[in-house]
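Appendix C reproduces, verbatim, an entry submitted by the partner laboratory led by Prof. M.T., so that reviewers can inspect both the input and the predicted structure.
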Amino acid sequence: MVLSILTGKDFFMRLWGKEFSITFLVPIVLRFGNKFGIPKDRMGNSFVKVSNTLIRTGVKKVKPDKLLILLPRCLKKPIINKIINFSKEMNIPVYVVPGGEKARAAVTEVKPEAIIGVACERDLLSGIQDVITKIPVIGIPNMRPEGPCKNTIIDIGEFEKAIQTFLGLEVKLAGTGEDF
């Protein structure tokens, strides 16, 4: 796993010829962090970053209609609209969902080969654990400048990077690295 993270090469996900998921580590990592007073959201954010790095090392490109974008309804409307417009142009299914149950329903309906999920760390962890052994997921943690579930934003550069990972296309929705 460390070699995969450091080199960007896939040493981990196909260990011994089998797909391998790191989601079994989630409860262990959260308990470990709790013992040292590290907030659950911070541990969740770190776990999502590690998971994203591992996914990027071994992902196969998918067609746009086989990629699913899941957005939380708490995301600022201009961000949602920009992503929806981009997705329509690219023929990428996008769902704005209020939580995990609706996100799972969207996955069942679309049957994607890859997922980009935007949510808080808690929802990302849950969603990644649900599907990562079957479907690669890149999680984009939202930022909450006005508090939980209200006018959240994302690092658009991370979103663009996720699109590039799964589609092999370089896209620009805004300036690189901007939060919007």
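The CA atoms of residues 126 and 161 lie 22 Å apart. Additional entries are available on request from the coordinating office.
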